[in-house]
Design a protein that fits this description.
Layout (H helix, E strand, L loop, with lengths): L8 H21 L12 H11 L4 H9 L3 H9 L4 H34 L9 H10 L2 H16 L1
Helix pairs in contact: 1-2, 3-5, 4-5, 5-7, 6-7
């Protein structure tokens, strides 16, 4: 699997559901969205957050798929058991792609928090909204710089 389009359809569906659940959890926790009774409990919000972790599924699938079959066969041929092969061969080789996926998840979360300012959530996005309302360029630029710095970390 070398591209996002190569992922199996169930993985892509799970990815989309995870993103939707993460947004719903964020909006309901901050009181900007009234969910039906069966989704309004704390347990449901925690469940939606865990489903939001599905953002990481395509990155993990691509990362472990990028480890060559011949490398795994060579490790098995040298006597590595399955757990040792995972920890000593697969994980270190898949690590850079996994970290790139973590970065995508972090940037997505930062953008969601920033957009939350439009909905009235007291967060980084309030710098934009408040700056535009009052016409304070310094406040808008502060929000832009802070968002960019967080996104680049």
């Amino acid at each position: 699997m070398r591209s996002f389009g190569d992922l199996p359809r169930p993985v892509l569906v799970l990815e989309g559901l995870g993103i939707v659940m993460l947004v719903l959890a964020y909006l309901s926790i901050h009181g900007h969205l009234q969910l039906p009774g069966w989704l309004a409990s704390q347990q449901a919000a925690v469940g939606m957050i865990f489903l939001g972790v599905a953002l990481m599924v395509p990155a993990a699938s691509g990362a472990f798929g990028s480890v060559g079959r011949e490398v795994l066969d060579a490790a098995t041929g040298q006597g590595y058991a399955a757990p040792a092969r995972f920890w000593q061969i697969e994980l270190p080789l898949a690590g850079p792609v996994l970290l790139a996926g973590v970065r995508v998840v972090a940037v997505s979360t930062i953008s969601l928090v920033t957009v939350g300012g439009v909905l009235g959530v007291s967060s980084l996005g309030m710098l934009f909204v408040d700056g535009f309302r009052r016409g304070i360029i310094a406040e808008i630029l502060t929000g832009v710089v802070l968002t960019a710095v967080l996104g680049l970390l």
